[in-house]
Automatic annotation (TrEMBL):
Organism: Turnera subulata
MF-aspect GO terms: O-methyltransferase activity
Presence of the UniProt keyword S-adenosyl-L-methionine in the record: yes
Name of the protein in question: Desmethylxanthohumol 6'-O-methyltransferase
Pfam families the record matches: Methyltransf_2
UniProt-listed SUPFAM superfamilies: S-adenosyl-L-methionine-dependent methyltransferases
The keyword Ribonucleoprotein is annotated on this UniProt entry: no
PANTHER family named among the record's database cross-references: O-METHYLTRANSFERASE
Keywords: Methyltransferase, S-adenosyl-L-methionine, Transferase
Length: 68
């Protein structure tokens, strides 16, 4: 993640909301929000995955629920 932020961090200056689809426990989006606190982070994953996600400042966890 550190390499990503160093390489592409300038591209995040104007981002207001960042959604990480399949974000697992939200660690990556949380690290981005920590470095760019103006960004609202959303971690989006399956219910059983999000259930294990710790709280992170600036990050909301959302569950994907699929019904067929």
């Amino acid at each position: 993640m550190r390499a990503f932020l160093l390489q592409y961090g300038d591209g995040l200056k104007d981002v207001e909301t960042l959604v990480d689809v399949g974000g697992g426990t939200g660690r990556h989006v949380a690290e981005i929000v920590q470095n760019y606190p103006h960004i609202k982070g959303i971690n989006f994953d399956l219910p059983h995955v999000v259930a294990t996600a710790p709280p992170y400042d600036g990050v909301s966890h959302m569950r994907i629920v699929l019904q067929f």
